[in-house]
Every structure is written in C-alpha cells, then in structure tokens.
Amino acid sequence: MRSMRMPHALPIAPPPASPGLLAPQHLLVVDDQRLDRAITAHAAGRMGFRVKSAGSIAEPRDLPDRGAVFDFVVLDLALGDEDGLEVLPLIAHRNPATVVVLASGFDGRILAASQRLAAGLGVRVAGVLRKPILPTALQRLIGQAPGILFPDDDAQLDIAPERIRQALAEGQIRPWFQPKTSLATGLIVGTEALARWTQPDGRAVPPALFVAVAERNGLISELTDVILDQALQACANWRVRRPDCWVAVNLSPLLLSDPGLTDRIEQRLQHHGVPPGALVLEITESNGIPDTTCAMRSLTRLRIRGVNLSIDDFGTGHSSMLSLIRMPFNEMKIDQAFVRESVTSRDSRKVVRASATLGRELGLKVVAEGVETETMAQLVEDAGCHVGQGFLYGRAVPAHVFEAELTETADQPGVVPAL
C-alpha cells in the first residue's frame, strides 16, 4: 500500500481559458439516435461548446474530412447500417489533435479494441460514456484532456518543415516536465521532458502534429537535441537541491541508426555536469525499434556508459517481446491505454499485471503511464509497478513550475533513487 500520496500534486484541473486557447471550442456529435443526439448536443452546449451534430458519417457537409476542424467528437460506435469506426480515419486525416469520446453500449472487449484502433491511427480517445450522456459525465471526461487545441484554420494544419526549423531556432519549442511518482511513497522521483511548441501569439501546436512532421522530414535529430539539451540543463539545476532527481527524454527509434548518437549524448551529459544515471532515454516501441546491428550498438553503448533505457508504450507495438529480450533495457513503461482500461476491463488488468510481473522478473523498473485516479494508482501498485505517471500527479508544466514543486519535497524522506 502507498504510505503517502504526494502532498502537493501539480494541478490536474482543466486548464482555464487563456489567449493560447480558442474559445468557444467546437464539438461534433455523431449519433443515429435523434433523442440521444439531442441530449448529448444539449449537454455540450451547456458546457459552452459550439455544437454540430450528425446522424450518420455521410450526412453533414462539415464532417472532419469536408472542411471543418473539431476539438472534440462524441462518436456513437453503432450508426444503424454503419459503424463509428469509419469516422476515425477521417479524424486522423483531417486533424489528429481532435479528442474523441466514444458513446456506446457495447461490451468491454469491443470498446477496448476500438480504443486501440483509434490509438493506432493516432487519434486520442478520452474515454467511453454510456448513453444518455449527462453534462456532468461529459464535463468530467473532457476535462481530463490536455488544453492544447487547434484553431479552425486549414493553414495551421499544414506544418511545413521550415516552420519547425524556425520554431527551434527561436526557442518556441521547449521541454515541459511531467512528474514521475513513487507508488510506494507518493513522492516525486523524476520527470519526463515533453516537447511543447508555443507560438508567438500564445497558441500551442499539438506535439502529435509537429513531432510526426519532424520525423518525416529529417528534423527529429535537431528536435531531440534541443529537448535533451534543455532537459539536462534543468536537471542539473534541480540536482543542487535534489541530487537524486532524474529526467527522461523521448528518443525516436529513427535515431538509433545514427553512429554518432552515443557520443553526442555523452558530450551533453558532460557539458551540463549530469551523471549518466540521471538520464532515462525512452524509446517508443510502438513506432518499431529497428533490429539492426547499429541500433543494438547504440543502445548497448549507452547502457555501458550508465544511461538508463526505457521501452515506452510496452505492449502496443509489433515486437514488444523481441525488443525486450534483445535490447538492453532496464525500464519498462506500460502503455496508458491498458492502465486507463484497467479500471473497467478485467482483460486490461490482466495485461497490466502480466507486464509488471514480466518486468520485475527481468529486473526492470516498471512505470505505469496514464494514471489519472486513485483507483488506477492502487491497481497498478497492486500489479507490481514501481512508478506512476499521469494527471493524478500532475500535468506537464514549464521547468520553473516543476522546480517549485520539486523544491517543496526536497526535504521529504522516502525518495527513491533513479534506478
């Protein structure tokens, strides 16, 4: 059992309106049942959304692939002779930043499969609601979604590589930090650096968009260097008060084929005076880890030099087990989809428990991602996970905000070392 919860968790309430967000936001209801559609639309309208509705995927001219961009879509999976799954590719194509709420009465296996399908398309599903949808339920679910929304502007959706280069040069893209918390003590033990792009006018560009563009256009190395450099600088500052603090940085599998990767990372560690053990590199398994000699050499050299390696999104890729066995990982991150579903899905709970057991048997630290409630925290701790990450403990925040939180817990006992 957890002996204590983090005493001053970072804010998890829905972010307030600001010049960086567009208000009112746009929400689309897709439901073939007129009464249910009207109830949902009314609930969303009471929340301040600009609401449009459709009885089928072919009905309105303003579905995601026909001109309009929606911040949220409430989608019924059963649409008469059609099914709501056909809407997901349209959303992925038009605006991957759209957050989807599934409305359904189907059993847990179908809902879990639908959520995994959405995740595979790059569409975020906030969760599932039973019909009729009440305003309080919709507010609670949507309130958990990050406040990074995209404007109704086609030009904004087309992120040219030159815009990313300019943003990097001008310092518009910076790391924000989300706490990682010991499930045993409830105390912050580290953080993950997440790339955030805030434009000069205050609007935020969703990472799902610009990271993908960077990977496709050969900019992922430059983006990673910027985030890594600033994350290590921040970590060096924090370690003055919290010498056990560590930071995790995402590393695209595309970079593992770069023979100079290990030397560049080592040079940055030395430059900032951060020991290799205070850095965790999270390699996203769902994107596919290349099983090549060069990739193996890079990962092995990093581990030999003391850098920690984490297999991210474990269980969602095509080669989870092979990657875990062949590559020198010493941390496993259980994908947030399984963690979120564990509250309502017995199968997902079994996956979380089996993954945690496997990780412990292999001598890995096990991190549960997407922990949003106390119930989830208890489930993943009971399953054998060591560290939790998610909105329960705090959202990603700028470095100075995270430093303030870390300073408050600097003298708290029970903080565990990195790995």
Automatic annotation (TrEMBL):
It comes from the Bacteria. GO terms for molecular function: cyclic-guanylate-specific phosphodiesterase activity. Coiled coil: none annotated. Keywords: Phosphoprotein. Residues 157-410 form the EAL domain. InterPro entries: CheY-like_superfamily, Cyclic-di-GMP_PDE-like, EAL_dom, EAL_sf, Sig_transdc_resp-reg_receiver. GO terms for biological process: phosphorelay signal transduction system. Residues 26-146 form the Response regulatory domain. PROSITE patterns: EAL, RESPONSE_REGULATORY. The modification 4-aspartylphosphate is found at D76. This is EAL domain-containing protein. It comes from Rhodopila globiformis (Rhodopseudomonas globiformis). The lineage of its organism: Bacteria, Pseudomonadati, Pseudomonadota, Alphaproteobacteria, Acetobacterales.
